[in-house]
Amino acid sequence: MPVPASREACEALDRADPLSALREAFVLDPATVYLDGNSLGPLTHAARRRVQETVERQWGQDLIRSWNQHDWIGLPERLGARIARLVGAPAADVLVADSTSVNLFKLGAAFLACARAGRGRVVSELGNFPTDLYVLQGLEALFPGRVEFCAVPRDGLEDAIDERTALVVLTHVHYRSARMYDMAAVTGYAHARGAAALWDLSHSVGAVPLDLAGTRADLAVGCGYKYLNGGPGAPAFLYVRSDLQAALGPGIAGWMGHEAPFAFDDDYRPAVGVSRFRAGTPGILGMAALDGSLDVFDGVDMTAVRDKSVALCELLIALVESRCARHGLQLVSPRAAAERGSHVSFSHPDGYGIIQALIARGVVGDFRTPDVLRFGLAPLYTRYVDVWDAVDALLAVLDHGEGRSGDYARMQLVT
Amino acid sequence: MPVPASREACEALDRADPLSALREAFVLDPATVYLDGNSLGPLTHAARRRVQETVERQWGQDLIRSWNQHDWIGLPERLGARIARLVGAPAADVLVADSTSVNLFKLGAAFLACARAGRGRVVSELGNFPTDLYVLQGLEALFPGRVEFCAVPRDGLEDAIDERTALVVLTHVHYRSARMYDMAAVTGYAHARGAAALWDLSHSVGAVPLDLAGTRADLAVGCGYKYLNGGPGAPAFLYVRSDLQAALGPGIAGWMGHEAPFAFDDDYRPAVGVSRFRAGTPGILGMAALDGSLDVFDGVDMTAVRDKSVALCELLIALVESRCARHGLQLVSPRAAAERGSHVSFSHPDGYGIIQALIARGVVGDFRTPDVLRFGLAPLYTRYVDVWDAVDALLAVLDHGEGRSGDYARMQLVT
Fold first, then answer.
1. What number is the ipTM of this complex?
2. Chain A CB contacts of B280 below 8 Å
């Protein structure tokens, strides 16, 4: 694709975009270009309605009866089934619960508890999203002598996955660089060495086509608040391949994961399937928002989403490199679209200040210490003109040196 | 207090009730007597407004900036400080996070990971709320040989707490009977034997005065959705006595519990204090509802709450026993107010059917298998006339045999 030379050319791309109508589902400020959906997806009208209905009608009026009447009790599985389509999994193999961190802990603890003697190593990547590293370090601390945590540079992964390795834990799309693993290849490599693969899909789900079943991935977790637009701190999800479900304990044995929670038995018996990974009572307001937010994905072809994601990312890279060339921005993300997720990162010594100046101009991206500018391109609502306008603003910020006064005093929470 | 002989006498009690104005804070259907606030507290106007503002203004408009601008990032500690007053703890020692089950797991795993050799026993009570038993059984399964779980009948607790015991885990007010432990006495007994005490306050907080600091309780967890009225599946809380905080790991090491989450370091370093027990990203919508729901407690004297709770419970027992005497209901809860929390349970062979018939008449209590009728008396909004009307309806149900056709096919989710 030739680089569009004008805003009008971008408008033409938007007119030809088969996904353009989806933008209407979102509550978006026309004065803002929001390129931070990889951190916190925007509100949809459906999510707003669902929360309101849940608060006012279900909690406010129907109260305790809503657990049955509005099937609150079934939300973790129902939402899991909706997300399953987006991650290429059978509907019954995905559950929505807790946070990504807690879900990773549950699956990690469950899996490592039944790892064979001498197979206690967990391999991950240095620079992986911190919570993945921390949860695994925490498992090592809780199970001294049984779990050995081992984080290596990306190019050392093949060597690190050996006969001692029980589990490989990787983030499919890297939070900083957007570098994307070949899930099938890495999973196959792990399997060939007798290890299992657990994928963190937080920066993939909703933006990148996924095929958990086809790649034979063993386990996965992911986030509800980025490209799924489920709201701040939305409940997360987990996946367990069906043939593994019966052998795994729950990680955290809570009453909602019991085979018969309302029998109030003294003894724990895990529910069949992924339902055993329900631990405590599900947070219904967060679930309601996520349920509403998933409506926009109904009937959407993830291949079309990917096509637009690639086109938006390519456009951003091309425009930055052609229009801002003299300002020293370096592409951090892979140049090859096939190796990249749905955000694009650049480095610049004044990165923090540039992001602050962009926000002041109504272009919301985010900053990652020490020098990374990160822009999320969400195909369901990001337009080609948004990319044009963002680069316009970036060029103005750079031309006027607006980023030079930035400091690190208050960094945003953006993941 | 003599038993009021009429509805008018109950109205007089309501007029004299110093807490009566608090009822205005709640969204309540005038046609319903809601005696299930010990399962799911009702919506308050403040919680409704807070959720709406959080969705529409903070998420919808301010988006990612809200983590700083509206201090989403500080909600777990801010809400912890609000709950601290209700549980008799220093503000800095309580954190809101996750579910009760997950919090119990975190504290249990953290504490048991540093238990001395030969001190791996966890003692609890048979018939305790199931999730407490299940989480502890799960810890035993995850740490074979290191953790030994031991549940005994209540009258066997003293014998079970011995030199092998690391931790005693009890629910302060029993979910079924409302029987209340003397927290100071049991904690002191555990300490005298070198064990620590972890209290589940789910059925206490918001209805019963608590003094975690004064009783020297070591650890506690509790629920946000019962008497705190935080909404369905509201985030829960945890307490760690300040002198224990530095020695305990986080249980689940997540990025939000890191000393510097936004430094994105590869290595986990726990935050100072209870903040290390933050694991994943907090669920903001649930936090917002809980924040709003706590407004009604501002300035409320928990002694006055307790006085009214006792009076309501005594009234219910007296009216049931005097007016429904011939129908064979048996008091399950302790008769002595000092040994009872804020709900009252009776048993009856037709318990399930009776509760269903009561609900059909607009009186919402709940049922606990196999034969327990449970009525929660929430002093912030339950009136003396509500108790009168509930017993009126109960008498009618019993007189007309309406409860006999009930079956167990669909039990409510009520804890």
1. 0.96
2. 98-102, 131, 233, 236
